[in-house]
Amino acid sequence: MSKVFISWYDGHEHILANEFFGLLKKNGFDVEHSPYSPHSGGYDERWNKWYEEGLPKAIKQAEMFIAVITPSCDGSTWMLQEYQEAYSSFLKTGRPTLYFIRFDPTDCQVKYPEYYLQNSIHLSSVPEEALHILQSLIF
Hints:
This protein is an alpha/beta fold and about 140 residues long. It is built from 5 helices and 5 strands; from the N terminus they run βαβαβαβαβα. The mean pLDDT is about 85.
């Protein structure tokens, strides 16, 4: 079972992102994700020491890092920090493998540093196709 870290900003509120997340879990991926946004109505306890302890530990344990890009994540500082942590780890150790999946419209794409995206595998925005790509790369 592959350990996957999902970086998302309220992705559970986006239909396709939520479908992708569910498909990963249903197909045997061990999925961990960013803490839920405080804007989602509750407080996710994982925010306590997330950047100091939680995030580095999650990235170290992950075989895959997937940035789930939705319109609501534009300007998300914590997603940038998560991508930076994964990217730095990738440069040092070769892990985790970096992926991104875009669910933002092509006319208004969320911006990330180009070197993050150039060093990441772009997954299809069709959840089933993205799942098949991941499965073909690891199994």
